[in-house]
UniProtKB/TrEMBL annotation:
Phylogenetic classification of the source organism: Bacteria, Bacillati, Bacillota, Bacilli, Lactobacillales
Protein name listed in UniProt: Regulatory protein YycH domain-containing protein
InterPro entries found in the cross-reference section: YycH (IPR009996), YycH/YycI_2 (IPR042274)
Domain named Regulatory protein YycH: residues: 10-424
Length: 438
Protein backbone atom coordinates (compact mmCIF):
# COMPACT_ATOMS: atom_id res chain seq x y z
CA UNK A 1 0.00 0.00 0.00
CA UNK A 2 2.84 2.35 0.88
CA UNK A 3 4.50 1.58 -2.47
CA UNK A 4 1.31 2.51 -4.39
CA UNK A 5 0.98 5.76 -2.45
CA UNK A 6 4.58 6.57 -3.22
CA UNK A 7 4.00 6.08 -6.95
CA UNK A 8 0.94 8.34 -6.88
CA UNK A 9 2.85 11.03 -5.00
CA UNK A 10 5.71 10.85 -7.50
CA UNK A 11 3.25 11.12 -10.41
CA UNK A 12 1.58 14.19 -8.89
CA UNK A 13 4.93 15.87 -8.26
CA UNK A 14 6.07 15.28 -11.85
CA UNK A 15 2.74 16.66 -13.11
CA UNK A 16 3.13 19.82 -11.02
CA UNK A 17 6.68 20.36 -12.27
CA UNK A 18 5.54 19.94 -15.87
CA UNK A 19 2.68 22.40 -15.37
CA UNK A 20 5.07 24.91 -13.82
CA UNK A 21 7.44 24.65 -16.80
CA UNK A 22 4.59 25.19 -19.26
CA UNK A 23 3.37 28.27 -17.38
CA UNK A 24 6.90 29.66 -17.18
CA UNK A 25 7.35 29.20 -20.94
CA UNK A 26 4.01 30.89 -21.56
CA UNK A 27 4.90 33.91 -19.44
CA UNK A 28 8.31 34.28 -21.05
CA UNK A 29 6.95 33.92 -24.57
CA UNK A 30 4.36 36.72 -24.33
CA UNK A 31 5.88 39.94 -25.74
CA UNK A 32 6.46 42.51 -23.02
CA UNK A 33 5.38 45.34 -25.32
CA UNK A 34 1.91 43.99 -26.05
CA UNK A 35 -0.16 47.08 -26.89
CA UNK A 36 -3.53 45.70 -25.86
CA UNK A 37 -2.53 45.46 -22.19
CA UNK A 38 -2.73 48.57 -19.98
CA UNK A 39 -1.50 48.49 -16.41
CA UNK A 40 -2.42 51.19 -13.90
CA UNK A 41 0.20 51.38 -11.19
CA UNK A 42 -0.98 51.60 -7.57
CA UNK A 43 -0.37 54.74 -5.54
CA UNK A 44 3.25 54.75 -4.48
CA UNK A 45 4.36 55.51 -0.95
CA UNK A 46 8.09 55.31 -1.53
CA UNK A 47 10.59 55.97 -4.28
CA UNK A 48 10.21 53.56 -7.17
CA UNK A 49 13.29 52.43 -9.05
CA UNK A 50 11.59 53.62 -12.24
CA UNK A 51 11.47 57.16 -10.81
CA UNK A 52 15.19 57.39 -10.10
CA UNK A 53 16.51 59.77 -12.74
CA UNK A 54 19.70 59.12 -14.66
CA UNK A 55 22.31 61.72 -15.58
CA UNK A 56 21.31 61.33 -19.24
CA UNK A 57 17.72 62.31 -18.38
CA UNK A 58 18.48 65.28 -16.14
CA UNK A 59 21.31 66.76 -18.23
CA UNK A 60 19.55 66.40 -21.55
CA UNK A 61 18.39 68.81 -24.28
CA UNK A 62 14.80 70.03 -24.49
CA UNK A 63 14.63 71.64 -27.97
CA UNK A 64 15.62 70.55 -31.47
CA UNK A 65 15.74 73.30 -34.09
CA UNK A 66 16.26 73.10 -37.85
CA UNK A 67 17.46 76.28 -39.55
CA UNK A 68 16.80 75.85 -43.27
CA UNK A 69 17.77 78.38 -45.92
CA UNK A 70 14.59 80.38 -45.37
CA UNK A 71 12.78 79.10 -42.24
CA UNK A 72 13.31 77.88 -38.69
CA UNK A 73 11.41 74.89 -37.28
CA UNK A 74 11.39 73.96 -33.59
CA UNK A 75 10.32 70.75 -31.82
CA UNK A 76 9.99 70.05 -28.10
CA UNK A 77 8.31 66.63 -28.33
CA UNK A 78 10.08 64.40 -25.81
CA UNK A 79 10.29 61.42 -28.18
CA UNK A 80 12.00 63.47 -30.89
CA UNK A 81 14.43 64.96 -28.36
CA UNK A 82 15.32 61.49 -27.08
CA UNK A 83 16.08 60.34 -30.62
CA UNK A 84 18.32 63.37 -31.13
CA UNK A 85 20.07 62.69 -27.84
CA UNK A 86 20.61 59.06 -28.88
CA UNK A 87 22.02 60.17 -32.25
CA UNK A 88 24.74 62.27 -30.60
CA UNK A 89 25.41 59.50 -28.11
CA UNK A 90 25.81 56.93 -30.91
CA UNK A 91 27.92 59.32 -33.03
CA UNK A 92 30.33 60.84 -30.50
CA UNK A 93 32.24 63.98 -31.39
CA UNK A 94 36.03 64.14 -31.44
CA UNK A 95 38.49 66.57 -29.89
CA UNK A 96 37.05 69.67 -28.17
CA UNK A 97 38.93 72.96 -28.57
CA UNK A 98 38.19 76.45 -27.22
CA UNK A 99 37.58 78.79 -30.16
CA UNK A 100 36.87 82.29 -28.87
CA UNK A 101 34.77 84.56 -26.68
CA UNK A 102 32.52 86.56 -29.00
CA UNK A 103 31.12 90.05 -28.69
CA UNK A 104 27.32 89.97 -28.30
CA UNK A 105 26.56 91.17 -31.84
CA UNK A 106 28.96 88.64 -33.38
CA UNK A 107 27.66 85.89 -31.11
CA UNK A 108 24.04 86.58 -32.06
CA UNK A 109 24.89 86.60 -35.77
CA UNK A 110 26.66 83.28 -35.34
CA UNK A 111 23.57 81.67 -33.79
CA UNK A 112 21.34 83.01 -36.57
CA UNK A 113 23.29 81.44 -39.44
CA UNK A 114 21.23 79.22 -41.74
CA UNK A 115 21.46 75.55 -42.78
CA UNK A 116 22.15 74.28 -39.31
CA UNK A 117 20.69 71.94 -36.73
CA UNK A 118 20.60 73.16 -33.14
CA UNK A 119 20.30 71.07 -30.00
CA UNK A 120 19.35 73.32 -27.09
CA UNK A 121 19.59 72.72 -23.34
CA UNK A 122 17.42 74.54 -20.76
CA UNK A 123 20.59 75.84 -19.08
CA UNK A 124 24.34 75.82 -19.51
CA UNK A 125 25.42 72.24 -18.77
CA UNK A 126 28.98 71.26 -17.73
CA UNK A 127 30.54 69.36 -20.62
CA UNK A 128 31.47 66.56 -18.22
CA UNK A 129 27.75 65.94 -17.61
CA UNK A 130 27.20 65.25 -21.32
CA UNK A 131 30.44 63.34 -21.89
CA UNK A 132 28.34 60.70 -23.66
CA UNK A 133 28.44 62.99 -26.70
CA UNK A 134 32.24 62.82 -26.99
CA UNK A 135 34.92 60.22 -27.57
CA UNK A 136 36.79 61.80 -24.68
CA UNK A 137 36.76 65.03 -22.68
CA UNK A 138 40.21 66.60 -22.13
CA UNK A 139 41.22 67.24 -18.53
CA UNK A 140 39.96 70.65 -17.43
CA UNK A 141 37.53 70.98 -20.35
CA UNK A 142 34.68 69.13 -18.61
CA UNK A 143 34.07 71.94 -16.12
CA UNK A 144 33.21 74.39 -18.93
CA UNK A 145 29.51 74.72 -19.73
CA UNK A 146 27.46 74.92 -22.92
CA UNK A 147 23.76 75.25 -23.72
CA UNK A 148 23.75 74.94 -27.53
CA UNK A 149 25.19 72.46 -29.98
CA UNK A 150 25.23 73.63 -33.61
CA UNK A 151 25.92 71.26 -36.47
CA UNK A 152 26.11 72.54 -40.03
CA UNK A 153 24.77 70.66 -43.03
CA UNK A 154 28.16 71.42 -44.63
CA UNK A 155 30.27 68.37 -43.77
CA UNK A 156 33.56 70.30 -43.81
CA UNK A 157 32.54 72.41 -40.80
CA UNK A 158 33.22 71.32 -37.21
CA UNK A 159 30.50 71.10 -34.60
CA UNK A 160 30.09 74.22 -32.46
CA UNK A 161 29.41 74.25 -28.72
CA UNK A 162 28.10 77.54 -27.30
CA UNK A 163 27.48 79.11 -23.90
CA UNK A 164 25.04 82.03 -24.00
CA UNK A 165 26.10 83.57 -20.68
CA UNK A 166 29.84 83.82 -21.33
CA UNK A 167 29.47 83.81 -25.15
CA UNK A 168 32.28 81.26 -25.23
CA UNK A 169 32.42 79.14 -28.38
CA UNK A 170 34.12 75.74 -28.61
CA UNK A 171 34.59 73.48 -31.60
CA UNK A 172 34.44 69.70 -31.64
CA UNK A 173 35.76 67.40 -34.32
CA UNK A 174 32.91 66.14 -36.46
CA UNK A 175 31.95 62.47 -36.27
CA UNK A 176 32.44 60.29 -39.34
CA UNK A 177 28.82 59.23 -39.78
CA UNK A 178 26.13 60.94 -41.85
CA UNK A 179 23.68 63.43 -40.31
CA UNK A 180 20.88 61.94 -42.41
CA UNK A 181 19.25 60.17 -39.40
CA UNK A 182 19.19 63.54 -37.65
CA UNK A 183 17.68 65.22 -40.71
CA UNK A 184 14.93 62.59 -40.79
CA UNK A 185 13.84 63.67 -37.32
CA UNK A 186 12.43 66.71 -39.11
CA UNK A 187 11.46 65.35 -42.54
CA UNK A 188 9.54 62.39 -41.06
CA UNK A 189 7.92 64.32 -38.18
CA UNK A 190 6.97 67.73 -39.57
CA UNK A 191 3.68 67.81 -37.65
CA UNK A 192 5.62 68.04 -34.39
CA UNK A 193 7.47 71.21 -35.41
CA UNK A 194 6.36 74.84 -35.34
CA UNK A 195 7.57 77.57 -37.66
CA UNK A 196 9.48 80.01 -35.49
CA UNK A 197 10.92 83.51 -35.48
CA UNK A 198 14.10 84.57 -33.71
CA UNK A 199 13.94 87.00 -30.79
CA UNK A 200 17.07 88.53 -29.29
CA UNK A 201 16.33 89.08 -25.61
CA UNK A 202 18.72 90.43 -22.97
CA UNK A 203 19.81 86.96 -21.80
CA UNK A 204 19.46 84.84 -24.90
CA UNK A 205 18.20 84.31 -28.43
CA UNK A 206 14.98 82.35 -28.52
CA UNK A 207 13.09 80.80 -31.45
CA UNK A 208 9.39 81.21 -30.68
CA UNK A 209 6.22 80.29 -32.64
CA UNK A 210 5.35 82.81 -35.35
CA UNK A 211 1.61 82.03 -35.17
CA UNK A 212 -1.04 81.04 -32.62
CA UNK A 213 -0.40 77.84 -30.67
CA UNK A 214 -3.09 75.37 -29.59
CA UNK A 215 -2.25 73.35 -26.48
CA UNK A 216 -4.21 71.26 -24.01
CA UNK A 217 -4.99 72.18 -20.44
CA UNK A 218 -4.64 68.90 -18.52
CA UNK A 219 -5.88 67.84 -15.09
CA UNK A 220 -4.13 65.24 -12.95
CA UNK A 221 -4.70 63.41 -9.72
CA UNK A 222 -2.03 64.52 -7.28
CA UNK A 223 -0.09 62.36 -4.84
CA UNK A 224 2.71 63.07 -2.40
CA UNK A 225 5.12 61.06 -0.35
CA UNK A 226 4.42 60.61 3.38
CA UNK A 227 6.41 62.79 5.74
CA UNK A 228 8.26 59.71 6.96
CA UNK A 229 9.88 59.37 3.51
CA UNK A 230 11.45 62.84 3.71
CA UNK A 231 12.46 62.35 7.34
CA UNK A 232 14.27 59.18 6.32
CA UNK A 233 16.02 60.93 3.43
CA UNK A 234 17.01 64.14 5.22
CA UNK A 235 17.84 63.04 8.78
CA UNK A 236 20.57 60.50 9.47
CA UNK A 237 19.60 60.11 13.13
CA UNK A 238 15.97 60.52 14.21
CA UNK A 239 16.49 59.87 17.94
CA UNK A 240 16.79 63.63 18.63
CA UNK A 241 13.95 64.60 16.28
CA UNK A 242 11.28 66.97 17.62
CA UNK A 243 7.81 67.65 16.23
CA UNK A 244 7.29 71.44 16.32
CA UNK A 245 4.29 71.53 13.96
CA UNK A 246 1.74 74.34 13.98
CA UNK A 247 -1.44 75.19 12.07
CA UNK A 248 0.47 76.16 8.91
CA UNK A 249 3.55 73.93 8.80
CA UNK A 250 4.47 70.38 9.67
CA UNK A 251 7.88 70.90 11.31
CA UNK A 252 10.56 68.43 12.35
CA UNK A 253 13.90 69.51 13.76
CA UNK A 254 16.94 68.34 15.65
CA UNK A 255 19.95 70.22 16.96
CA UNK A 256 21.25 71.25 13.52
CA UNK A 257 18.48 70.76 10.91
CA UNK A 258 14.89 71.78 10.32
CA UNK A 259 12.32 70.39 7.90
CA UNK A 260 9.14 72.35 7.15
CA UNK A 261 6.27 71.23 4.92
CA UNK A 262 3.48 73.69 4.21
CA UNK A 263 0.24 71.88 5.02
CA UNK A 264 -1.76 73.50 2.22
CA UNK A 265 0.72 73.77 -0.64
CA UNK A 266 2.95 70.78 0.14
CA UNK A 267 6.09 72.89 -0.42
CA UNK A 268 9.03 71.50 1.56
CA UNK A 269 11.78 73.68 3.04
CA UNK A 270 14.86 72.10 4.57
CA UNK A 271 17.83 73.79 6.19
CA UNK A 272 20.89 72.33 7.90
CA UNK A 273 23.24 74.60 9.81
CA UNK A 274 26.78 74.36 8.48
CA UNK A 275 29.96 76.11 9.58
CA UNK A 276 32.08 74.79 6.71
CA UNK A 277 34.39 77.42 5.25
CA UNK A 278 35.51 75.66 2.08
CA UNK A 279 32.78 75.89 -0.54
CA UNK A 280 32.48 73.39 -3.35
CA UNK A 281 33.19 74.46 -6.92
CA UNK A 282 30.24 75.02 -9.25
CA UNK A 283 30.87 71.68 -10.93
CA UNK A 284 31.04 69.86 -7.58
CA UNK A 285 27.79 71.47 -6.43
CA UNK A 286 26.01 70.44 -9.62
CA UNK A 287 27.40 66.91 -9.47
CA UNK A 288 26.57 66.39 -5.79
CA UNK A 289 23.10 67.95 -6.09
CA UNK A 290 22.27 65.52 -8.88
CA UNK A 291 23.16 62.55 -6.68
CA UNK A 292 20.91 63.99 -3.94
CA UNK A 293 18.09 64.57 -6.42
CA UNK A 294 18.15 60.94 -7.52
CA UNK A 295 17.09 59.70 -4.11
CA UNK A 296 14.63 62.37 -3.05
CA UNK A 297 12.66 63.19 -6.21
CA UNK A 298 9.76 60.93 -7.21
CA UNK A 299 8.48 63.00 -10.14
CA UNK A 300 7.55 60.49 -12.85
CA UNK A 301 7.74 62.87 -15.83
CA UNK A 302 10.81 64.58 -17.28
CA UNK A 303 13.06 66.86 -15.21
CA UNK A 304 15.95 69.02 -16.40
CA UNK A 305 18.90 70.79 -14.87
CA UNK A 306 17.98 74.49 -14.93
CA UNK A 307 21.11 76.22 -13.79
CA UNK A 308 23.63 77.19 -11.16
CA UNK A 309 23.53 80.59 -9.43
CA UNK A 310 27.09 81.78 -8.82
CA UNK A 311 25.99 84.46 -6.34
CA UNK A 312 24.23 82.20 -3.84
CA UNK A 313 25.68 78.81 -4.78
CA UNK A 314 22.28 77.26 -5.48
CA UNK A 315 21.54 74.59 -8.07
CA UNK A 316 18.07 74.43 -9.65
CA UNK A 317 16.15 71.74 -11.48
CA UNK A 318 12.83 72.07 -13.29
CA UNK A 319 9.98 69.61 -13.75
CA UNK A 320 8.55 69.23 -17.25
CA UNK A 321 5.41 67.87 -18.88
CA UNK A 322 5.00 67.24 -22.61
CA UNK A 323 8.27 69.03 -23.31
CA UNK A 324 7.31 72.23 -21.45
CA UNK A 325 8.47 73.52 -18.05
CA UNK A 326 6.08 73.73 -15.11
CA UNK A 327 5.99 77.00 -13.18
CA UNK A 328 3.49 79.30 -11.52
CA UNK A 329 3.02 81.53 -8.49
CA UNK A 330 4.43 79.03 -5.98
CA UNK A 331 6.78 77.53 -8.58
CA UNK A 332 5.69 73.94 -8.02
CA UNK A 333 7.96 72.85 -10.85
CA UNK A 334 11.15 74.15 -9.20
CA UNK A 335 13.63 72.18 -7.11
CA UNK A 336 16.39 74.28 -5.56
CA UNK A 337 19.27 73.06 -3.41
CA UNK A 338 22.61 74.08 -1.98
CA UNK A 339 25.42 71.65 -1.25
CA UNK A 340 28.47 71.68 1.01
CA UNK A 341 31.27 69.16 1.49
CA UNK A 342 29.14 67.40 4.11
CA UNK A 343 26.08 67.22 1.86
CA UNK A 344 22.77 69.03 1.43
CA UNK A 345 22.34 72.22 3.49
CA UNK A 346 19.35 73.92 1.86
CA UNK A 347 16.37 72.58 -0.12
CA UNK A 348 13.16 73.90 -1.71
CA UNK A 349 11.06 70.99 -2.95
CA UNK A 350 7.40 70.61 -4.06
CA UNK A 351 6.20 67.34 -2.52
CA UNK A 352 3.10 67.07 -4.73
CA UNK A 353 3.50 65.08 -7.95
CA UNK A 354 1.05 64.38 -10.75
CA UNK A 355 0.07 60.74 -11.22
CA UNK A 356 -3.10 59.90 -13.16
CA UNK A 357 -4.33 62.16 -16.01
CA UNK A 358 -8.05 62.96 -16.02
CA UNK A 359 -8.44 62.77 -19.77
CA UNK A 360 -12.15 63.62 -19.79
CA UNK A 361 -11.29 67.08 -18.41
CA UNK A 362 -8.82 68.11 -21.14
CA UNK A 363 -9.49 71.49 -22.71
CA UNK A 364 -7.88 73.09 -25.75
CA UNK A 365 -6.42 76.56 -25.23
CA UNK A 366 -5.29 78.85 -28.05
CA UNK A 367 -2.33 81.07 -27.18
CA UNK A 368 -1.30 84.07 -29.31
CA UNK A 369 2.07 84.24 -31.02
CA UNK A 370 5.07 85.77 -29.28
CA UNK A 371 4.96 89.01 -31.26
CA UNK A 372 1.43 89.76 -30.06
CA UNK A 373 2.50 89.19 -26.44
CA UNK A 374 5.46 91.54 -26.87
CA UNK A 375 3.08 94.22 -28.16
CA UNK A 376 0.84 93.68 -25.09
CA UNK A 377 3.82 93.96 -22.75
CA UNK A 378 4.99 97.14 -24.44
CA UNK A 379 1.50 98.60 -24.13
CA UNK A 380 1.62 97.92 -20.39
CA UNK A 381 4.90 99.80 -20.06
CA UNK A 382 7.29 96.84 -20.34
CA UNK A 383 9.57 97.55 -23.32
CA UNK A 384 11.16 94.84 -25.43
CA UNK A 385 14.59 95.86 -24.11
CA UNK A 386 13.51 94.87 -20.56
CA UNK A 387 12.60 91.29 -21.52
CA UNK A 388 15.35 88.91 -20.42
CA UNK A 389 13.70 85.73 -21.72
CA UNK A 390 10.33 84.39 -22.82
CA UNK A 391 8.74 81.01 -23.47
CA UNK A 392 5.81 78.64 -23.21
CA UNK A 393 5.16 76.56 -20.11
CA UNK A 394 2.52 75.09 -17.83
CA UNK A 395 1.12 76.98 -14.86
CA UNK A 396 0.28 74.65 -11.96
CA UNK A 397 -3.12 75.61 -10.51
CA UNK A 398 -4.54 73.81 -7.48
CA UNK A 399 -8.17 72.77 -7.78
CA UNK A 400 -10.62 74.66 -5.55
CA UNK A 401 -12.90 71.63 -5.26
CA UNK A 402 -10.34 68.95 -4.44
CA UNK A 403 -6.81 69.06 -3.03
CA UNK A 404 -6.11 65.85 -4.94
CA UNK A 405 -6.54 67.48 -8.37
CA UNK A 406 -4.22 69.94 -10.11
CA UNK A 407 -4.70 71.74 -13.41
CA UNK A 408 -1.73 72.36 -15.69
CA UNK A 409 -2.62 75.30 -17.90
CA UNK A 410 -0.44 76.34 -20.89
CA UNK A 411 0.71 79.95 -20.60
CA UNK A 412 3.24 82.40 -21.95
CA UNK A 413 5.93 83.20 -19.37
CA UNK A 414 8.28 86.18 -19.35
CA UNK A 415 11.48 86.80 -17.37
CA UNK A 416 11.87 90.32 -15.96
CA UNK A 417 14.49 91.42 -13.42
CA UNK A 418 15.61 87.82 -12.96
CA UNK A 419 12.13 86.50 -12.16
CA UNK A 420 9.77 84.39 -14.28
CA UNK A 421 6.01 85.02 -14.25
CA UNK A 422 3.10 84.60 -16.62
CA UNK A 423 2.71 87.44 -19.10
CA UNK A 424 -0.71 88.23 -17.59
CA UNK A 425 0.78 88.46 -14.08
CA UNK A 426 3.63 90.66 -15.34
CA UNK A 427 1.17 93.07 -16.97
CA UNK A 428 -1.07 93.09 -13.86
CA UNK A 429 1.93 93.78 -11.61
CA UNK A 430 3.08 96.67 -13.80
CA UNK A 431 -0.42 98.17 -13.91
CA UNK A 432 -0.79 97.88 -10.12
CA UNK A 433 2.59 99.52 -9.70
CA UNK A 434 1.60 102.37 -11.99
CA UNK A 435 -1.69 102.79 -10.10
CA UNK A 436 0.12 102.86 -6.73
CA UNK A 437 2.42 105.55 -8.08
CA UNK A 438 -0.42 107.90 -8.99
Amino acid sequence: MKQVDSKWISFILYALVATSLVLTWRIMSVPSGAKNIQTIAPTQTSTSISNVKSMEEIFSPHRLTFHTQSNTFVASDERIIKHADSFFKDNPMGEIVFDSTYAKETYDEFILKRNRIELRFPAAVPIEMISRYFNSVPEGMGKNSINRILISTAVEEPIYLLDDESRNVYTAERFEGSIEPLMRLYSANKDYYVNANAYSFKDTIKFLPQSDVTLNRVDYLVEKQPNSFFIGQLFEDTTELRDDSNDVFTIYSDNISELRIHKETGILYYYRNSVEQDDLTAFQQIRDSFHTLKFIDTWTQASHFEGYDKENGQVTYRRYLNGMPISGALDRGLIRMEMKNSGLVDLYYPTEIIQTPLEDREQQIVLPDAQELIVQLNGAGIPYSAIEDMGLGYEWISNDESTRVASLVPRWFVKLDGTWSTVDDAIDARQRGDADGL
